[in-house]
Amino acid sequence: MAQDAQSEAVEAQADAIGTAAEGAAAEGAAETEAEHEAAAEGGHGETPHYPLRKPEEMSWSFAGPFGHYDLGQLQRGLKVYKEVCASCHSMNLVAMRTLTDLGYSDAQVKAFAAEYTVQDGPDDSGEMFERPGIPSDHFPAPFPNPAAAAAANGGAHPPDFSLLAKARAVERGFPTFVFDIFTQYAEGGPDYIHALLTGYGEEAPADITIQPGTYYNPYFLSGPALAMPPPLSDDLIEYPDGAPQTVEQYSRDVTAFMMWAAEPHMVERKATGLIVMVFLIIFAAMLFLVKRRVWAGTPH
Ligand code: HEC
Prior knowledge:
Blueprint: H1 2-40, H2 71-83, H3 106-114, E1 117-120, E2 129-132, H4 146-152, H5 164-167, H6 176-183, H7 188-198, E3 215-216, E4 225-226, H8 247-262, H9 266-295
Antiparallel strand pairs: 1-2, 3-4
Heme C (HEC) is lined by residues 80, 84-85, 87-89, 153, 156, 158-159, 164, 168, 193, 196-197, 221, 226-229, 231-232, 254.
């Protein structure tokens, strides 16, 4: 008898657990349904894909097999870099002597380098010392190391400019990347940087939370906002050559300059490539004719 009562009690307990579990399951289902609805409306729950907007394709003087750098543009870009970006971004791999590529004379490059103070040493007594820059120096970095740069910029360190124009690009997706092979599109980096620099100033959509200390930019590759405040504004930098002093023009110029910094020998590379391709085509035609001549007398 006692055993019966016990088993009844166990059954009752099991029932109770069962109902509780069912209840919980029903609640869970309701929750996921609500989430699905929210996702369908484009709200909370959807995984966003960055960048929120694709960069516009610009026409660059250095695009295509006959591409070349516009020296006037590079000189303006250097001015933008020096007066604005260089206070946060380093360019460690670029030596100032290479600025002769931009059309400056040796004397001008010497004077340019001398405006900087660089650390050198150790001297005879083992001390580091400072001296004016010389053309063989690389561009001095604004911060002693990336950690110091991050600490001064809300936790994100401004990336080095040396190779940035070739290190960034927005994925093109199928089938565009197939067409790119034939159109020889290779300006994903410059297009991205130009879009990023001109992409500030919009209100973030209501469903996107912007972290404090970051700035909304729908073109940023890694999120809805980045730690770089909008660096450019109209009339910020004076252009001696009469080019428009607008954010649009500054962005193009500094982007072209960054492309030159990342690939200073691009023009020679493209010129050599073109000659090689022409040679290979002529050579293939000649091989074909020679083959026909050599085998002409041989019966099948
Ligand atoms: C006040 C400091 C500051 C100035 C001035 C500045 N930047 Fe930045 N920049 C940053 C920081 C910080 C980041 C990193 C942002 C992040 O990862 O959230 C950054 C990132 C970038 C990136 C990389 C974005 C990516 O995809 O990772 C580019 C390109 C860039 N800056 C270009 C420029 C250009 C061009 C200028 C000059 C016109 C400039 N910056 C001026 C602080 C600055």
